[in-house]
Predict the 3D structure of the following.
Amino acid sequence: MTQDSNDTGRYISAEAEKPWLGLFGDKQDFYDDCGFTLTASTDEHDIMVGNFMYFFQGGKQRPKSQWLGDGIANNNLVVITPKDRRGKGMYDNNFSRNGMNLEDYFSYDDLKVTEENGAVVWRMGKMEYVLNGPHYAMRGISGECEYDIRFTQLDAPAVWSFGTREAAPQAGIAGGYCYLEAEGTLKVGKTTYDIRGGRGVHERLGFSETLDPNANSQHDVNGFGNAFAIHILGGDVWVWGLGSFEAPMFFLTVEGKDLTFLPGAPGTEISYELLDPWHDPRSGLYMPSRFRANMTSPEGRLELEMQATGRAYYPWEMKRGYQFMYWHLGISNGAFTWPDGRIVPIENQITQHELVKHLISHRETMDGPDRTAVWA
């Protein structure tokens, strides 16, 4: 692993893999996450995994913090759907999720971070992350799931899309990610799934009270505000999209070339549509189940449609209200067209999609929800 202390290397440095608890100075509010997402297909199933360790520095003892809890959560989420469900729309799938109940939080002392043979190792509960870019591992037990997954960084550098750690004290946020290939086993209950040629993301992200996840809760009619994400990491067109639906940002790698589509850039047009609302009988929510992206720039044109099949979700419990993280597992089809007219197809690529929905404001007034930040 590179030992650079800055965030400019091809791999995430050892220093950046350590907890960032002191990164934002004396601010009372702090969030830090380290973990992995994974999508894969077996002969019979499509699989989506998210496993993270989240610092939530909050609670009553920190009155200016936006977080209700105080400690570290091991958020674990797994969706497994039959491949013969592809293209048939949503259904009420079962999924595995644990770790986000306040009663499940670990104390700060429960996390042990060590350096071993050049790697930074996080251990908490029965889970272990080995962070040694370009090689990573996720092992152990969380809920009903047992992991033995090895990751290797794909031929693309780490990207600090949310800013570097050096800028964090002023910006209030920092974060980066890298794309991975995954091999190993996932055991859920009594069933073991062999993971071969899976795709994943390793994420490091931290922010303080300068980022208010509730601030844009009424940004649109659905309450999705400023938060969606989509990952496609198979084939010749890799897609990472994020932001709000009114101003989405997309970062593509097409046949090895990195391309960026940003709202307002010269000659760039981007649209992202939410389609086919589906009533989720388990959560009671009415959520989109199909998504369409179209964008053009001088570098080319992307046409993409993602059909979701399964879902899972988990809450962020905050002093101002609840944020609901709603994940879709599905399949994407479409194409990228180069300026010379050559077409690169996107065919049946497994896709992870995430929405952030504001559900409840804890404080209501006769003038409407109290949107005053708790730290004001």
Notes: The first helix runs from residue 168 to 171. Confidence is low (pLDDT under 50) at residues 1-5. Residues 27-211 form a domain with the AttH-like fold fold (CATH 2.40.370).
